[in-house]
Amino acid sequence: MLALGAVAAGAAILGSMLGLGGGVFLVPIFTLFFGIDPKLAVGASAIVVVTNSVVGSSVHLKSGFTNLRLAMLLQVMTATGAIVGAIYGVNANPAVIYVVFGIVLLYAAISMAIPRSNRNVSLGDDSLRLGAVFHDPATKQEMAYVPKRVPQGVGISAGAGILSGMLGVGGGVVMVPVMNLLMGVPVKAAVGTSAFMVGITQVAPSFVYYANGKIDPGVVVPAVIGVFLGGQLGAKLTRKLKAQRLALIFGVVLAYLGIRMIFQGLGIHLLGA
Questions:
Q1: Is the pTM of this model over 0.90?
Q2: Phi first, then psi: what are they for 190, rounded to 5°?
Q3: Judging by beta carbons within 10 Å of its beta carbon (0-12, 13-18, 19+), is residue 2 exposed, middle or buried?
């Protein structure tokens, strides 16, 4: 239980820093290194993501990184997709979950490895009134932006919701790169907005997993305690650090976990697995 709590705390720190909810780190570690059934790991992750969002997003809100109007617009499709994904996930073959999660992790690794800066920030038409401005303590600059390609972002958010419900990752692993690279939202605003969204996205899937007996208190309780310890710390570190400096390291970790998940699903055993 202490080990589960420690891992959850680390996942919460990383998840809060990058707006990923922590599930993208938690599920593969629980399944690969602790031998926890993937469906129980996903169920635990769904609750952990909600907890991490509540703990971490309050700091992002105070920092001004969260774009509430954009979050609520994208949230409609994300939450709907999450319910569909959760219903499928509780009945899916565990091997399918391993492979799909591995592919998602590899996608996240590649997207994080791409240098993300503010070069794509848009200041165009704001007819939808989604524009915002925040102060970046790391660079001591005021960052103003207007999200672009909104229809495409809304469409992709439905797919992110399906993945989040099926895999318990909160959808941030898709939405942070989409908001930053496609919609031109600065990386810290994308992180803050995603951190707010992931908790709402995972509320309904949590009930789906609970109703189907996929919530194990022995896994959930230490994980939630760990998240309380790590969630706010990760959000506070976002204020001081440039997230893109850590992106390459996280990308390597995610790629390693992704490859192991795919091999596990295909029944291929790596050395030391």
A1: no
A2: -65, -40
A3: exposed
